[in-house]
Specification:
Helix content is 73%, strand content 0%. The chain is mainly α.
């Protein structure tokens, strides 16, 4: 076994394996949670709810991974299969694509608002990153439209962000 493929134990091994989860939690905290306290109470409900769901899912993922490791007797080290399957360049490429996608989502929501930004992002993300056809990409985009506009905008009457162009859809506050 090569030295670079050996398992890292302890805290360094945990941090090395879950660095992306840690970075994602920091992004959620600094982009969604902290800035949400500068807006009105009704407007901050959506980013806070979204943030806590994302952080909860990350915690569940980390806990199940660690529990599976402990049951298998692997400890807290990095799995060798993961290290071989995802060389450094592939891992950096995937992390960069995800970070670029999140940046694009924030940018389009800033420009066009929650409803239109979410729909357009979902359409483009599933088309180009998911490599789906335009028709197959349209289905999740329409589901996003129904959920964000219908559920949060109409039924729950949340005050959704309308973007810097202030594009308002009928029925939204």
């Amino acid at each position: 076994m090569k030295p670079d493929q050996q398992k890292k134990g302890g805290i360094k091994g945990i941090l090395a394996e879950f660095y992306f989860d840690i970075i994602l939690i920091l992004i959620v905290v600094f982009i969604f949670i902290i800035p949400s306290f500068q807006i009105r109470v009704l407007s901050r409900q959506f980013p806070l709810a979204l943030s806590f769901v994302v952080i909860g899912l990350i915690v569940i993922r980390v806990a199940t991974t660690l529990a599976r490791r402990l049951r298998a007797g692997e400890g807290a080290g990095i799995r060798q299969e993961t290290a071989r399957a995802l060389p450094g360049a592939t891992l950096v490429r995937r992390a960069s694509l995800i970070l670029l996608s999140l940046s694009g989502l924030l940018g389009i929501i800033y420009l066009l608002g929650m409803v239109l930004g979410g729909v357009i992002f979902t359409l483009l993300f599933t088309r180009f990153y998911g490599k789906q056809t335009w028709l197959a990409s349209l289905i999740p985009a329409l589901v996003t439209l129904v959920l964000v506009y219908g559920l949060f905008g109409i039924l729950m009457n949340f005050q959704l962000y309308h973007g810097i162009f202030q594009i308002r859809l009928p029925g939204l506050v």
